[in-house]
Model the fold of this input.
Amino acid sequence: MNTKIICKKSTAGSATLTDHWNGARGLKSREKILNGGYDIVVIQDNSMRPLRGADSLLRDGKLFCDLIKQTGAKPYIYNTWSRKKTPETQATINRMYEELGKQNNAVVVPAGNCWVQAMALQPGIELYHSDESHPSALGTFLVALSFIKTITGTLPSGYAEVYNYIDKDGETFRIMQVSKAEIALCVKAVNEVIAR
Done:
């Protein structure tokens, strides 16, 4: 299967869905959704919102899901992972994003569960950035696979080990390097969590 995924974003560090809805901090998420002509739109709240603002997550998530469906696109919910020091919060994070998906007939991308599965398969794997919240390069690779499998129903048969980016000046720099063993682990974790 050859599926080309073209992505655009509307992001600001630590933003909530309320910030996105209200256009705070220069965000233009609503306008982008209305004018983008997208097939799918992914929404994700601030990582602490499922734990500290569940009502707001459900309220604002519904607003966005309704807006997304109004344009003919399908809403996808980015189910994130717990912080490194509080793995016990993963069940609550999952429950809130699953509830948002269920209430709005939206697809949930279970990145958090894929994260947990990878750590179960290889304890000590470092998926976190040094801030113990955001993903490391390997964590980012795992999340990308979670999205690919959820969106397309399958994973690619082959992967590069080195990922380079060419900037606007034509300069190349490395954004990520993963080993064959790390790739195999991530593929296994995603396939065990997301069955198709």
In short: The chain has a mean pLDDT of 96. The CA atoms of residues 159 and 184 lie 10 Å apart. The helical segments are 17-22, 29-36, 49-52, 54-70, 90-103, 111-121, 137-152, 180-193.
